[in-house]
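Whether sequence alone determines local backbone shape is best considered at the level of individual chains. When preparing material for the folding task, we compiled for one chain both its residues and its backbone structure tokens. The sequence in question and its structure tokens are set out directly beneath this paragraph.
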Amino acid sequence: MFKNKNEGRNNLCGDKIRELRLANSTKLSQRALADKMQLIGIDIDKNAIQRIESGKRFVTDIELKAFSVVFEVSVSDLI
């Protein structure tokens, strides 16, 4: 039985998060993004950002909302 059938990925938003992170005028590093997330109360580190972007880690709804706040986009834009 398959864990999920989304081309082996554990999230739908990782590619978009990476795209937004690199499209930012300052081209945020994964560490800088993790720092911004921590400033709004989400305990996440650089390694977790890397796993999210590569599709190896699930993203909680709370984290998804926080990413939308950091990037100033809607949650649906991330999916």
User: Anything to note?
Assistant: The first helix runs from residue 14 to 23. The CA atoms of residues 29 and 73 lie 19 Å apart.
